[in-house]
Amino acid sequence: MSQKAAEAAYTLDQGCVEDMRLAFERRRNLVVKLAKEIEGLEVNVPEGAFYLFPKCSSFFGKHTDGYVINNATDLAMYLLEVGHVATVSGDAFGDPECIRFSYATSDDNLREAMKRIKETLAKLV
What we know:
Blueprint: H1 2-11, H2 15-36, E1 51-52, E2 63-64, E3 67-68, H3 72-83, E4 88-89, E5 99-102, H4 107-122
Antiparallel strand pairs: 1-5, 2-3, 4-5
């Protein structure tokens, strides 16, 4: 079966691959633009994968409503519990000053998630 799949990958039209590449490039550009609008995030432009990995350490030491942000794990939990957006602490990827956002979803979901992240982070003092 895998030989037939490989043969198909080499011989059939690859237009769908280009369509997906363009969709992920559009999503990446959207998330980067929206993340750059969030004061306190240092945003890089990913060149591969489908994750944004901004530096978020400017939020360490901030607090609100019983939440104290000491590290990226605290920030990820705060975003989940208050903003209802799932992220992953950069600790899991070797950079404890960062947080990871996936952009493997629809443009509408990304806009809503980034809106929630921005509003939730704005509550921290």
